[in-house]
Design goal:
Elements (H helix, E strand, L loop, with lengths): L2 H10 L3 E3 L3 E3 L1 E4 L9 H7 L8 E4 L1 H4 L6 H4 L1 H17 L1 E8 L3 E9 L5 E9 L2
Antiparallel strand pairs: 1-2, 3-7, 4-5, 5-6, 6-7
Helix pairs in contact: 1-5
């Protein structure tokens, strides 16, 4: 496990992403030599077929409600603000891929200095 992945695990401790459910944020890394630069690259690196619909959104858009104290509460908003700052400081080419409709698998992914792609995954429930 890379040092950044270990740091990321610490960053997400105690954080739950709130949609119509509450879900853990799970750090992950893609196999070395794979890419997440495009949706099809990401699907391929995850071993998924490219016929699956993928929505790509920005990191600020994805976390927009989680960093608002009036939505998430002060403690959670502070934790998510710190997480976004960590992601922006440590990863390049940050993006979010959303797979699915009602049970959405969301992947926040970026590239580390060593060209390793890593990030977070979570499940959102949107009815």
């Amino acid at each position: 496990m890379s040092g950044l992945l270990s740091e990321l695990r610490q960053q997400v401790q105690g954080l739950l992403f709130i949609s119509e459910s509450e879900s853990l944020l799970e750090p992950f890394e893609l196999p070395m030599g794979t890419s997440a630069q495009t949706p099809s690259d990401f699907l391929s690196a995850q071993g998924l077929t490219s016929d699956q619909p993928v929505e790509q959104v920005t990191v600020p858009y994805f976390f927009r409600n989680m960093v608002r104290e009036d939505v998430a509460g002060a403690e959670l908003a502070q934790g998510f603000t710190a997480l976004v700052q960590w992601l922006e400081s440590n990863l390049q080419e940050l993006t979010v891929y959303r797979l699915g409709n009602v049970q959405v698998q969301a992947y926040v992914v970026g590239k580390a200095e060593n060209d390793q792609w890593l990030g977070l995954k979570t499940t959102l429930v949107e009815t």
